[in-house]
Design a protein that fits this description.
The structure is a homodimer of 291-residue chains.
Chain A lengths: L16 H4 L2 H7 L5 E3 L1 E2 L2 E2 L9 E2 L10 E7 L2 E6 L11 H7 L4 H19 L11 E3 L4 E3 L6 E2 L4 E10 L2 E6 L11 E4 L6 H13 L3 E12 L4 E10 L13 E6 H10 L15 H11 L1
Parallel strand pairs in A: 1-6, 10-14
Antiparallel strand pairs in A: 1-4, 2-3, 5-6, 7-8, 8-9, 10-11, 10-12, 11-15, 13-14
Amino acid sequence: MAAPAVAFSGSPLDRADNIRCDPDALGGLMDWRARLLKLDGLIPGITNDGTLEWGTLADAADDAELVFLGLLDGKACFAAVPEEGAGGPADPRAWQVLGLLQPADLALYGGARSLVDWHARHSFCARCGSPTKPAKGGWQRNCPACGAEHFPRTDPVTIMLVEHEDRLLLGRQPRFPPRMYSALAGFVEPGETIEEAVAREVLEEAGVTVHDVEYVASQPWPFPSQLMIGCHAKASDDALTIDRTELDDARWFTRGELLEAREAGPQGNDTIIYPRPFAIARTLIDWWLDR
Amino acid sequence: MAAPAVAFSGSPLDRADNIRCDPDALGGLMDWRARLLKLDGLIPGITNDGTLEWGTLADAADDAELVFLGLLDGKACFAAVPEEGAGGPADPRAWQVLGLLQPADLALYGGARSLVDWHARHSFCARCGSPTKPAKGGWQRNCPACGAEHFPRTDPVTIMLVEHEDRLLLGRQPRFPPRMYSALAGFVEPGETIEEAVAREVLEEAGVTVHDVEYVASQPWPFPSQLMIGCHAKASDDALTIDRTELDDARWFTRGELLEAREAGPQGNDTIIYPRPFAIARTLIDWWLDR
């Protein structure tokens, strides 16, 4: 079965990997025709038409580090690294702006944001502490002192629908608004398969043993740079032992409860607020309800 | 369908995430009963029985950074961060030793290696350049100067069987031994789904457009710390445009050719050497041949 559509995917950019590695070709593109993604810190500029705003390289500060995003309609696209990175979740202002964008622009912005945010938070060499310099059009940083090469991070995270007798296990993180429940999730650690990470997270957070873990869909999540790997798993039984340091609550929801919550819209109903747009949790629950 | 078995998976360790975050509990485990994984640099010690060799914490250097691997048979297991990391592929000596290990020990070693190798190469803060300190039993490093938190890397890589009319597309990297062909592969970049990364890599490296990308299996690969995400995809046609900076060669192999190569063993036959044990490429091709 084809993977369901997810937010932050479907970027129209050609990443043009061959150009990154060719300083002459890259230099040749950095003229008045090149486009610069307008950013205020990490917040995108938006035109009156609700599309991403672009300027030219002349709009960048003289000492700005520029990253090559790729080609769009034959034009080279760049973004400037902001002085401060974010590294964490998006703030309310970002969500407000992102809600205005069409899917292709959202995907383009997400990839660009992850990349410039990484640069802003990684200007020193983790191996020796010296300042590093961007290389390969901004897809690498090199350390002139010790020779180490550093690459943008993409952190795989498993996020899973756990099913038992036609009910789904959803949980609340302490930082969630009241009544919002979502799929359990956690970073894949060194030394784990995707399936092992799913089983460990569900056992740690909810005390539930799972089997038959299956991949459903993936999504890039640019806050700051996760690869969300959406899975479905079956629970061996429905007894919960909730890790209260990780979760405020977790419970089983019937198909009927989830259909009602989806129907109730962004404010939810008395029981639950359905996960917000953009989140792969929503895509996964939609997929489960509609299949 | 259940994911096929892969090397470096199935670690018998309980990662005991709750202990990492509890300094008192962790400190209480660091006594004479705790076990220390014997490492010479990043190479494991092996007993005469072909199992991983363990010592006690007294075997570690006084100033060694210790990471908490987890619990095994109720005993706390640690590894010491070596003075030098590796960061790249395993050397021939490592492969020789790893060939002696049973799957559970291989998985345990792989996870430990990724973690201590990361520490050895990340002792400074990428944000401000100051020395960092291990935290949470070695699953984090904190910067006392700027407050940044740093986490071990796990880098997702897509690796894919591309199929066209019952033939598979395999390629040779320049560093491969003569006649060795394997599945195409490449890092997932910020802003991509797994499926998009597969399609981009195959187009970049071989000039082939794919559709119907499906996840098959994943594998942790501890050289230094990849999450290999194995997929299957269908090619729209079989014309190849090979990127010679990435690949020495790529070609389509019939089922018969691959069955013969597998049969021929580690030295292969006149046409091809089948991918080596441990590699998920081998698992994937086996899966395709045998399904």
